[in-house]
Amino acid sequence: MYFSDRIDAGRQLATRLGRFKDRDVVVLGLPRGGVPVAAEVADALDAPLDICLVRKLGLPRQPELAMGALGEGGVRVLNERVLRETGADERDLAAVEKRELAELDHRARRYRGSRPSVPLEGRTVLVVDDGLATGATALAACRVVRARGAARIVLAVPVAPPDWTARLGGEADETVSVRTPEQFYAIGQFYRDFTQTPDSEVIACLDRNRAAHGPVVHDADVRIPAAGATLTGRVAVPEGAAGIVLFAHGSGSSRHSPRNRAVAAALNRAGLGTLLFDLLTEAEAGDRARVFDTPLLAGRLAGATQWLAQRPEGGGLPLGYFGASTGAAAALWAAGDPASPVAAVVSRGGRPDLAADHLARVRAPTLLIVGGRDELVLDLNRRAGSRLRCENRLAVVEGATHLFEEPGALEEVAELAASWFTRHFRD
Fold it and tell me: Any idea what the Cα angle at residue 232 is, between residues 228 and 233, rounded to 5°?
């Protein structure tokens, strides 16, 4: 027995990888068990941590024995020897593959949520697991990483059989193992504690590393000339941002809205820029007629969009709208302009019905988010969705009311929005 647990294994492995400190490396852990090992390596090297999603294709009658593995991006690796010796047929393989594909998708959403993966292009990538047995999972992982543009792949594990490098067929540029014992039956025999790693631990490892290595956000107060007024706002753009989202607040609200600020902060953590600004001046905000003047608000939003597109902060990045309550109508009205450059729209508890005939003109993919207990607005959004001619989706946050004040409701809104923007900014 070489390791007390995965944390101990990770620390021992990190001592073998010290030469990679202060180099442009990314550490990828294979969920679940490889992630706590990888987290220790990433901490020691002060490197970003991410996951490499691969699923083992276990034999139906003996799940621990791998017929092969699946990876992100459609990678499929088969162990012909196991298939031949066990007599597994295509029907066995197809049934397991269908189940594991669904699990792969589920885990991607569970572990990453709306967060983008760490870029690998041109970088050295350390692929880490808690051990290597058949090698099918590691082989698939290396192929996934190579397909994502890694310049060099180092496969690192605490323990592996003596012939483990031969099993990889040169897929890794370098291999590192703390131990390679002659008597190797299963990875767990070398750990005192080899209990299954829960999803919560995987997510916690990623969150801790993300907090230490998250994107640097550059923010500044701005004044925006738009439609006969000068509007006050704050722009925040993370380094390497995938795009920028402009917020259109609802009636009686402002750029200081705690709900919009919470969503904006979550988008920043997900690598998206934000522009929170007031659609009306302080003098105008007291005029209820202006508060509900959708054409005026849409014109101001379009003016701010044009201003941002020409600013250094814009940098040619894709732009999107996040509209809340009546601000959703302004966002959809502005997006319905044939000249609108926006790539995606999200409405939170919105009143898209106030956008009237402009709904049918919207071309940007639109996500309508409504609380499950906000029955009137839910019905209005269903009707509005039937009038949209663009790609659209209605997402219902169960148990939430109009203000999404219930525990976890606003967090779900932020996750849905970040995922929608990230997806469509990259299309």
Answer: 130
Q: How far, CA to CA in Å, does 185 sit from each of 31, 65, 287?
A: 21, 12, 76
The tens place of each residue's pLDDT in the chain, 427 residues long, gives 899 999 999 999 999 999 999 888 999 999 999 999 999 999 999 999 999 998 888 888 887 787 888 887 677 778 788 888 888 878 888 888 888 888 888 888 888 876 667 878 788 999 999 999 988 888 889 988 888 788 899 999 999 999 999 888 889 999 999 999 999 999 999 999 999 999 989 999 998 998 887 677 788 899 999 777 899 999 999 988 999 999 999 876 788 888 888 899 889 888 899 999 999 888 887 777 787 889 999 999 999 999 999 998 887 899 999 999 889 999 999 999 999 999 999 999 989 989 988 999 999 999 999 999 999 999 999 999 999 999 999 999 999 999 999 988 998 999 999 999 999 998 7
Give the phi and the psi of residue 208 in degrees, each rounded to 5: -65, -45
Say if residue 135 is exposed, middle or buried (CB neighbours under 10 Å; 0-12, 13-18, 19+): buried
The CA–CA distances, whole Å, from 167 to 17, 239, 249, 404 equal: 22, 40, 57, 52
